[in-house]
Write a structure and sequence with these properties.
Layout lengths: L3 E4 L2 E4 L10 H5 L2 E9 L2 E2 L2 H14 L8 H14 L5 E8 L17 E8 L2 H10 L1 E7 L14 H12 L4 E5 L5 E4 L3 E5 L5 E3 L10 H13 L3 E2 L5 H5 L3 E6 L3 E8 L2 E2 L7 H17 L2
Helix pairs in contact: 6-8
Bound molecules: pyridoxal-5'-phosphate (PLP).
């Protein structure tokens, strides 16, 4: 089936879609991105992702390329044209195209926008999630503004590759104090030895995960004990359960850290329940 991408105002065949060689995203990683999960052809956690997009752009002083209403229409069109019922939609906004210079273009140029959408096989993903997955740990080596969802992802890409080479799906960054910050493309959680859900607070240098935020609400409604508090790798090893959250991973149970089993090494009841509750919530709230 043909795929289509949105590039600076028009839909083009995915295979032919291209950006200018002097796009500042390409040369300087001067841009931001967002990813929405798609359920039933609709955008999940739409508001949270829009809010974070505007914030990321504002923090980097990149103009908003269009209004939220207009962007919603284009995202939905990307979903429709690519026949996505279950999947992901990716948006990237860069500072635009200008002669290479580290400082911002003067006068400013319009931001450059790319959108792609693709389907995922939810049945296969569910089967995988039911088995759980491994994570490894790597030293935190990212810049101090991980709250901004920038396309500068080299440390994340290297961490993810290290994970893949060790049979893991994710790498958890660990700071100088031995505390887990987050994953290369997800937030990190445990059910600690006392049965409390734990995830790092967003005062730390991490991305404010939209899935994390929705899940905190789901957890509150379910009446489960939770603390936005960091945990060490040691605590993760001794945890009852662990899982990761993100628009791609949703809520994915983790059964080992650096090859050490968590609990009895199988998917725990809390993680699998939260996965089901999160998906139910996201599907119901998708627009
Ligand atoms: N942390 C990082 C570094 C990420 O890249 C992501 C998602 O891509 C997340 C956390 C999870 O964020 P969200 O739940 O908004 O997808």
């Amino acid at each position: 089936m043909s795929r289509f991408a949105y590039v600076n105002g028009r839909f083009v065949r995915h295979g032919q879609a291209a950006v200018h060689i002097e796009d500042r995203g390409y040369q300087l990683a001067d841009g931001v991105y967002e990813v929405w999960a798609v359920f039933d052809g609709k955008l999940a956690d739409a508001e949270g992702h829009f809010a974070r997009l505007w914030r990321s752009l504002d923090e980097l002083r990149i103009d908003h390329p269009m209004s939220e209403a207009a962007l919603t229409i284009v995202l939905r069109e990307a979903i429709r044209r690519n026949h996505v019922r279950e999947g992901l939609v990716y948006l990237q906004v860069t500072r635009g195209v200008a002669r290479r210079d580290h400082a911002f273009p003067n006068p400013a140029v319009p931001p450059a926008v790319v959108i792609t959408a693709r389907s995922v096989d939810r049945v296969a993903i569910e089967a995988k999630a039911a088995k759980g997955a491994a994570v490894i740990t790597v030293p935190e080596n990212r810049w101090g503004r991980c709250d901004i969802k920038t396309i500068g992802l080299l440390p994340n890409a290297l961490a993810k590759q290290a994970a893949r080479e060790r049979g893991a799906i994710e790498a958890w960054f660990v700071d100088d104090l031995g505390l887990v910050t987050e994953g290369a493309s997800s937030n990190a959680w445990i059910v600690d030895a006392d049965g409390r859900l734990r995830t790092r607070d967003t005062q730390a240098n991490i991305l404010r995960g939209v899935t994390r935020l929705t899940l905190l609400d789901v957890i509150a409604q379910a009446g489960l004990p939770v603390a936005e508090q960091p945990f060490t790798v040691e605590e993760a090893r001794n945890a009852r359960e662990a899982f990761i959250t993100g628009a791609g991973s949703l809520v994915t149970p983790i059964t080992s850290v650096d090859g050490v089993k968590i609990g009895d090494g199988t998917v725990g009841p809390v993680a699998s329940r939260l996965r089901a509750l999160y998906i139910e919530r996201a599907r119901a709230g998708a627009i």
